[in-house]
Amino acid sequence: MKSILKNQFQHIFKCLSIPVVFVLFAFSEAKANYFRSDNPDSSSIEGRWDMTIDLAGKAVPSWFEVTHSGLHTLIGEFVGTGGSARPVSKVNFTGGKMSFSIPPQWEEGNDLSVEGTLYGDSLAGTIVFPDGKNHSWTAVRAPSLLNEREPVWGKPVRLFDGTDLKGWHTLGENQWKAENGILRSPKTGSNLISDKTFKDFKLHIEFRYPKGSNSGVYLRGRYEVQIEDSHGSEPWKNQLGAVYGFIPPSYIVVKQAGEWQTYDITLSGRMVTIIANGKTIICNREIPGITGGAMNSKEGEPGPLMIQGDHGPIDYRNIVITEAK
Fold first, then answer.
1. What is the CATH number of the domain that holds 197?
2. Are residues 300 and 315 in the same domain?
3. Is residue 27 part of a domain?
4. 50 and 178 assigned to the same domain
5. Boundary of a domain, candidates 141, 169, 201
6. Residue 29 domain flag
7. CA 175 to chain centre
8. Which residue in 202, 286, 304, 313 has the most C-beta neighbors within 10 A?
């Protein structure tokens, strides 16, 4: 346990400090003041939005961001009910009404279209999926999650004791099992969710997958750190070590399929540092919003650790979490 903590601290101190975040944030805000638009209220739609889609009575999370480009154009980024973040080439906004369209990603059919109306710090509207089905949605401004102070860490706690699934549950039929100290999903099935929720924490977790398999670790149940058989590939925001769809790893440090690998992850507010197989691959970067497959879009709340089990066989062990006090 001590070696795990020492490894994390040695790498974290090499990363950018939190005060830098405030400087960059202030600079970004200053630039926004220079944005001139033919539509005087365009700045009111700018920012990040935590979105919830009503799919036949089921609340499904989504997310989008609106920013300006040049003098007169609004652009954005969108995360749907699945898949990765997608660019939005133009966001229309006039008289309190917004709209945009993007091509299908993993879906089949026509463009995905979103339209809504701004009501103060909330939005509501309709979304038409590529299959032509129409659903209502609401959105609220996403919290900044900025921490003014460095975290003070508590004691490490093992979330998996190697003998049973106590402290975990699934939302569907369970295929997970404890076997010889290993948390194992032998086939595609349900995601595994910790009973306990967390805010800011450090996580050590070890994993192993067969050739071609895929999994992921969702921090607070909302931000996926990708696990995939990516040996021999270039750094990419959808490969092993990435915050899925948002932040690519600086290096590919992937081992061969069948070998045990490690993540040491620190999450404080939106800021994440990821050490993979002993090397820092993401250093104090901001996670913009939820990733595809998130449990919900309530970013201001603590959330569980969720382990993806619906993309192929996967093994885990030595799951240790250290919460901020």
1. 2.60.120.560
2. yes
3. no
4. no
5. 141
6. no
7. 24
8. 202
Specify whether 304 is located in the same domain as 181. Answer: yes
Helix, coil or strand: residue 302? coil
Instruction: Characterize the bridge pairing of strands 112-119 and 73-79.
Output: unpaired
pLDDT of 1: 55
Model's pTM, two decimal places?
Answer: 0.88
Q: Quick one: pLDDT band at residue 266, thresholds 50, 70, 90?
A: very high
**Tokens at residue 217, please?**
């670790």
- Single out the residue in 120, 141, 162 at which a domain terminates: 141
Dihedral sign (CA 304, 309, 314, 315) = positive
Whose tokens are 């102070």? That residue is 149
Coil/strand/helix, residue 320:
strand
| Alpha carbon distances (Å) from 304 to 85, 98, 196, 200, 223 | 22, 33, 6, 11, 11
CB-based contacts of 256: which residues, under 8 Å, 6+ apart?
Answer: 231
pLDDT, tens only, 195-231: 999 999 999 999 999 999 999 999 999 999 999 998 8
- Residue 40: give the domain boundaries: 35-141
User: Are residue 110 and residue 73 in the same domain, yes or no?
Assistant: yes
List Cβ neighbours of 206 (8 Å cut-off, separation of 6 or more): 260, 261, 262, 263, 316, 317, 318, 319
Contact between residue 134 and residue 128 where contact means Cβ atoms under 8 Å apart: yes
Nearest to 109 by CA among 132, 139, 82: 132
Per-residue three-class SS string for 96-148: CEEEEEECCCCCCCCCEEEEEEEECCEEEEEEECCCCCEEEEEEEECCCCCCC
40 pLDDT more than 50: no
Residue 322 and residue 325: Cα distance in Å, rounded? Answer: 9
**The pair of three-digit structure tokens given for residue 316, joined into one six-digit string:** 């885990």
